Each structure stands twice: as structure tokens, then as C-alpha cells.
Amino acid sequence: MNRPARASLRTLPLSRTRHLRTATTVRHSGVRVPALSRRTTALLDATVAWGHYVGGVRQPSNDFEACVAAARNGEGFVWMGVHEPSTPQLNQLGVIFGLHPLSLEDASSPQQRPKFERDDDYAVLALRTLAYVPREERVGNGAAKPTGGREDTGAEPDEGGDVVETGTIMVFVGDWFVVTVRHGRHASMAGLRRRVEENPMQLALGPSAVLHAVVDKVVDDYLAVTDAVLEDIEEIENSVFSARLVADIERIYQLKRDVIEMKRTVGPLSLPVRQLSERPQPFINAEIREYFRDVDDHLARVHEQVSSFDELLTTILQAGLARLSVAENEDMRKISAWVAIAAVPTMIAGIYGMNFTYMPELQSRWGYPSVLAVMFTACALMFRGFKRNGWL
């Protein structure tokens, strides 16, 4: 990844090596930490959680700046998770971990395309997350989308449609740090840190172990979303091909649009994961590549399922439109048959309603019953003929 010289970044004032000694403490994300410099404190306001790990074990120290300095000196690594940071917070993140301004610009975008890039001092992987929206929360059902536990940060809304929504995760991996920057309420990493910490042997492999855990969590979410979407597709398919035709074309079209969004989310991630699983990469432990092969297999399965969803929905949409067209033709034939049957008595009654003096059977005692008999017989014969031909 060719980028401009980084001199401008290096000349920014650094507070990461300054340790403040004070008894005053503040609370960030439920963790009590010592009072820090104003810039670091502002960054922690957007931090969901952070930890210092040595030998795969989380250290008890809550002094963020001290942990960063220790990790930079070769004592383990720092894992920091940030959710929808502001521009000043991203800039401070770049100062602390030495991230290039172009990388920070990518991290500020909620619509970043999946990709894997390498810089001199770190590697960065961008991922798109998927989440299935329950029916009671969908916009199409008139329910407002929940805003989640965070206040409005002014970020752009999640993409996707009524059935699936997306988010973005940027993972920065260096020799002594791993940083995740998330956008969107459906980019949750809930429970991931706890599960990773339960396996200290793998976590001891370094920051790339966290990268694998994040990618594995995202792909597992893909699998869960595809299973939920498959149930929706089967429900639509049953309604379209049921004896009582219920072809909700609008719902089929919306689901097809969401499947296209899933393809845009899943497809571009295949190449980065394959690079991580097949080629040696800086900052990626060689033992972790074996785990990425398993993720690549799951991702290929998801990609195949999503592609089949698109084709299946196209077939269902065409079949639904064809059945609607056939049903409309059948209705028109029935209407036409009944109109033809009703035309016979209408014609006869119209003729005898012209009130001419000299008309057949006007003076006959049996004239009125005869005309009624002719009407009934003609209607019965026409009804039988239409019934035999399948028009009624």
C-alpha cells in the first residue's frame, strides 16, 4: 500500500509516554482507570473495552498509558475496541498507535468496502457485518428501529433494508497492538473478548489471534443471517405456491434487494480472507493461518448460499408474477362467461320490452312462460358449455 510520507504524523504531540501519577480516578466503559491526559480521556469515551495481555493473560493494570508503553517495549500487546469515534478521537488513536492518516480516514467511513492492506508498522482489515432484523422491528411493519444503548453520534445510518442491516469493522494489527473500530449498531462484538480470554494459549500467539477471532465472529454472524433469511424465503415460496395464491411481490422484491446487499457484503471479503489463509503476512502469526483456512471455508459456504438465494428469489418472483397473470386470466374468463350467460335473457327481455303492437306471442296465453323457458334453457346450455371448457 503506497502512501505519502508519514513525517507529519510523527511530529504530532505525543502523550502516550507520559504517565500521570494522581489518586483521582474516572470511569470509562464500566472500568475504573486513573486520571489521564485530556486527549487520552477523550479517546476512552469512545472505547468499549481495552486490555493489556501478556502471555495470553489479561493484566490487572488499569493505567492505559502505562500499558501502552509496556506493550511498545515488548511486554505483550494492547487490545482496544472503539465504537463510532469522532474525528478528534480517531486522530488521538493515530497518535497513540502510529496509524497513518489515510487509514484513519478509512476508519471514519461507515460504508468501507472489505479489504486487507499492509503498512510499514501494521496491517489493516476492513469487514462488513450483517445482522438479521426481527420482523417486529422492521420498518415495513411500521415499527421504529431501536437506537441501541448509545446516544446519537451523528453517524450515518446502517445500510441494508428491512430484513438485513450492515455495519463496519476496521481491525488494525501491529506487533504490539490490535485496535477495532466499529460503526453501526449491528457491528456488535458482544462477548467476543470474554470468549477469546477463555483461550489464553491461542491469545498468546499475539494480536493476530484477536484478528482471527473478529473475522470468525463476523463470518459466524453471516451464517446465522443466511439461516434466518432462508426461513423467510421458504415462507414466501410456500405462500406463492400454495393453493390459495398469496404473492406478496413487494416483500419478494425487498428481500431480493437485501440479498443483493448481502452479496456486496460477503463477496469482497473472500479475497482478504484467502490472502490471510494462504500467504505469509507481516504481523500475522504463522500458526493463525491454519485457523483462517477454516474461516475461508465457512465464508465460501455463505457466499454460495447467498448466490443461491438471489437465483431462488428471481425464480420465485417470476413464478409469482406468472401465477398472478394466470389467476387474472382465469378471473377474466369467469367474468366473460357470466356476462355471456347474462346477455341471453337480457337480449330477449330487451326485444320484448320494445312495446311494438305486432310481436310474436304477445296475445298467447303461453307466451310469457315460453319466453322464460327459452331464457332458462339457453342459460343452462351456455353454463354447461362453459363449465365443460373450464371457464367456470
Describe the structure in brief:
The chain contains twelve helices and nine strands. Helix 2 packs across helix 4, helix 9 packs antiparallel against helix 11 and helix 11 runs antiparallel to helix 12. It is α+β, with helices and mostly antiparallel strands and 392 residues long.
Into which percent range does the helicity of residues fall? 40-55%
Distance between the termini: 71 Å
And the CATH topology of the largest domain? Beta Polymerase, domain 2
Beta content: 5-15%
CATH second-level architecture of the largest domain: 2-Layer Sandwich
Q: Which stretches are poorly predicted, pLDDT < 50 over at least 5 residues?
A: 4-36, 140-160
Give an overview of the whole structure.
The longest helix has 65 residues, at 288-352. This protein folds into 2 domains: 7-146 and 154-323, CorA soluble domain-like (Beta Polymerase, domain 2, 2-Layer Sandwich); 333-388, Up-down Bundle (Methane Monooxygenase Hydroxylase, Chain G, domain 1). Helices cover 50% and strands 15% of the residues. β6 and β7 form a beta hairpin. Strands 4-3-5-9-8-7-6 form a 7-stranded mixed sheet, with helices on both faces. The N and C termini lie far apart (71 Å). By secondary structure, the chain is of the alpha+beta class. It is rod-shaped.
